[in-house]
Amino acid sequence: MNSKPLSILLIVVAFVLFLGASGAFFTVPETEQVIITQFGKPVGEPITKAGLHFKVPFVQEVNKFDKRVLQWDGPVAEMPTKDKLYIVVDTFGRWQISDPMQFFIRLRDERSAQSRLDDILGSETRNTVARHELVEMIRTTKDRKAAVDTTLVTGSGETSGGLPPIQFGRVALEKEITEQARSKLAEFGIELLDVRFKRINYNPAVSAKIYDRMTSERRQIAERFRSEGEGEAAKIIGNKERDLKEIDSKAYREVQTVEGKADAEATAIYAHAYNQSPESRELYELQRTLDTYKTSFQTNTTLILSTQSSLLRFLKGVPPAAPAAPKAAPAP
């Protein structure tokens, strides 16, 4: 009587063990979602709830997909900008499987999804870069105010190191790429969360020209500083020369003033001394005339004077020099 239920229990246990061994039961983790396929075709709805689930053994298969946010690291690509500069762009993004059934039908696995992301995101990145200038991808926002060095301010009020104006900025370009690619990836069951520029670099062939242009700009700034310095130096030297000449002129004027006063005082003293009596006046006149003789008469000087000349007045009373006596002949 008791052997029949026991045998039924053994049969049930054996059947459960058989189902377990054949893979009829499977678990779905919190980080995954499952598509059940039968002979390669999807069966039923996607399983997104974690727990223990059942499938028909030997006939149905479990296809698991990640439910978390996944990473896309784009290949480094060279592309031109609107201002005809070739740059090297490296991008990355984040995406998620939003519709596992559509994802399985169109792509099957994550490897195919990565390849499709490379195609779509790479194309949209290239198109966006080609529609904008390089400065739009380098600058973050259009409202950024750069710190201005007052030494770089030119006469027109502009600065040599100022930032050129932009319309969009790098953040707006990243959003543009994301929006353009999101609609294209939605048909594959993929939700694109974000796309960002990891690195933007010059093309090696263009880098030398860019560096030369930067060097030229810095040299222009240096030349302007040098010319301004030379101008200031010339101004300082000019002021110094003007001050020196002004000092010399003042000193010369003072010297002449002192000498004039001294000559006037000396003349006054002489006049007072020689104006004491008629004899002193005659003596003074004689001295001045003799000084004039010393200055005017030199060796072999011929001087023609009128009889009324004051110079001749003192010479009239001088007797002529006696002729020299002949030398006596020596005694024989």
* Count of distinct strands: 9
Instruction: List the secondary-structure elements in sequence, H or E.
Output: HEEEEEEEEHHHHEHHH
- Helix coverage percent of residues? 40-55%
Number of helices: 8
Strand content: 15-25%
* N-C termini distance: 210 Å
Which labels suit this protein?
four-stranded antiparallel β-sheet; 9 strands
Short description:
This protein has 8 helices and 9 strands.
Write up this protein:
This protein has 332 residues and is an alpha+beta fold. Helices cover 50% and strands 19% of the residues. The chain has helices spanning 3-21, 100-106, 110-131, 134-138, 170-186, 204-274, 278-296, 310-316, and strands at residues 25-28, 32-38, 41-47, 51-54, 60-66, 70-73, 77-80, 86-97, 190-202. Helix 3 (110-131) packs across helix 5. The radius of gyration is 58 Å and the shape is rod-shaped. The termini are far apart. 10% of the residues are buried. The model is unreliable at 155-160 (pLDDT under 50).
